[in-house]
Model the fold of this input.
Amino acid sequence: MNEYDAIERDVLDVIDRWRATGVGLDDTSFDELARRIFAYQFTANEPYARYCKTVGTSEDTVRSWRSIPAVPAAAYKEATLATFDVSRAALAFETSGTTAGTGGRHYMKTSALYDAALSAGFDRFMLPDGARLRYLNLVPNPADRPQSSLGYMMAHVAATRGTGKTSWYVYGTTLLMDDFFRDLGELATDGEPALIATTAFALADVLDYADARGLQFRLPLGSRIMETGGFKGRARVVAREDLYARTSACFGIDENAIVAEYGMTELTSQWYDALPLRRKAAPPWLRARVVSPDGEERAEGVVGALVHVDLANLWSCAAVETEDLGARFGDEIVLLGRDAAAEPRGCSLDAETLALR
Amino acid sequence: MQRRSHSADAAAAIGDAAARWRHSDYPPRVRTQARIVERTGYSAPVVEYALDRLFGSISADALLKTIASEVGERRFHSIGRVAIISSRTTVGVAVVPAAFALCAGCSVLVKDREDALVASFFETLATERDAFASTARATQWNGERDAHDLSAYEAVVAFGGDDALRAIVPKLASEARFIAYGPKASIGYVTRETLPDEETATAIATGAARDLVLYNSEGCLSLHALFVERGGRVTPADFTRILATAVQEALVEFPLGERDAEAVARAASARNLAIFRGGPVYSDADANFVIETGSAARAPAFTPRVLAVHEVNGPEELEAYVARHALPLEACAVAGDRADVCDAAVRAGANRIALFGEMQNPPLSYAHGGRPRFAEFVRFISHDAP
Done:
């Protein structure tokens, strides 16, 4: 067995064990697996290896998962970050926005790790009761946008955990409001619980539409909402508390039935709200470091940039640096900055405006 | 008919008020400066520079020269009421259009920022000339809740983002003049002739560094991309190294103010991405600045003090770059006296050709946004001969 096959098998075992028994990874096991993955990626991922060497890191100098160099998330737009021949990729997801005129891509050699990781996380945080639900997806339809990792994720969970009734309401930039509200009404009548997967800004638009028409529902017991994405880079910002209060009132569900997911195309695994504090929790193969600009790790509770170490990111780079802000509390993080966009202060053009023009 | 003596009287009063504001110990300035530091997060030396520059440029003579250059011998009359909305600016951008509108005899209302710079300056104006107490007003208002009725104004000057500007248009009277200043970027170009030795290159780099670091790169006159020609004795790579040193020195003169965590994370990410790209990168541990080699394929970072230096063979590459990224240009700093470079910058959209180090210090007559300063606020009168 090749080393990468062996590592894939070991990560899949971790995922399966956690799903079946709830047993996670102790520090030693996480560290050992992370360093094996780094050694593999250092050998097989040339752009990443070059970066590691530039910052003075090699296999010999990585003594802990905490010292694995994190590639900037934007680097996925600059180079093909993969450990294999991407012409044989089973999955390829596009990152949002571009800096070089071409979209960044996250390639995966097989779908096994991605499917297993997303399913296990989803089961734990969205379906802890094992409910089979109808899926109403206010996220890109993979039939329309196969490059969307979010669309793929929802299609996968709907196909494997749903009742067989799955609907999609986002096509391009169009939100099929009438269809969505017709289906909501149907749910309320039939008493069939559902999971609504939505981006934060689609949810805000839906609520505006409902408000304007005086629409209110009482979704069947067991219904829930997965919200993702925040408002970063959007002209419109809605405070999360307001968004959830309005959602609860409009759909007739408890606010605790609304769970925020935090993921990014450059990762394989996802973080989810851990109630009641709504800190973000992850499956045991995904950890975060909170760092200062010099890369030093911040103390618990201190805000800094988030670096994710995702052992399921076997086919690209396990350690990914983001511009998202957060603070660590034990194994959980508090995510900051995705909900609000600070008002630009100057009259300079900014990257978001340029991209929208 | 508007009497030119009105403009002269107004200009004299405005010039006198500005002269008082040029004194760093003038009490209203001292109080306002502290509030600007608090609002913007810029350091005190940066705010002090901004106020020196702003009020240093305003004099009766400069106002009248600009007016004369725009109206010549033509007759004119005040356009009427003017509203100035400065919701997205650095420091005091509303002051100059307000000054010209007052010289035109307009009644002016400024939507002021939390630091109340314009309101404080107008108070000084009113002590210089009683009439300004009623014709120059500044107030804070917050969005729709307490917005003034913009349809009541003959001209509306607005600084803001695309969405904010678009939202204003439906609120205007159909005949109103809408003088919009949207987000812009500025660039610089160093010709090979100006790079004969390190000393000369250092002087240019010192100016470029100042243009980069002032106001956290947030102004439309901030340096967002730099083009350096090949063929000089000092190579573009050497110039980049010299520039990095100059930026560190500029940060001593204009120290960073408060940096929020998001800006810090963004800068660190920009630095690490530059390292990933593999070219030479100049920065520091806290990512206070990042200077890297540019690529024609990459748009400017639009991150505070992050600058890409592009090696070019000629100004046509500047034009191609601006067109490729659809950059709306405001100014281009040029080192050297080459007409082909200035022409290329103008074709690319620049409204101003500036000197390095002076980009953020425009003269009063500068046609911001390519628009006249004074003529926007008057109606020109034709009087047919009998």
Notes: Residues 3-110+280-335 of chain A form one domain.
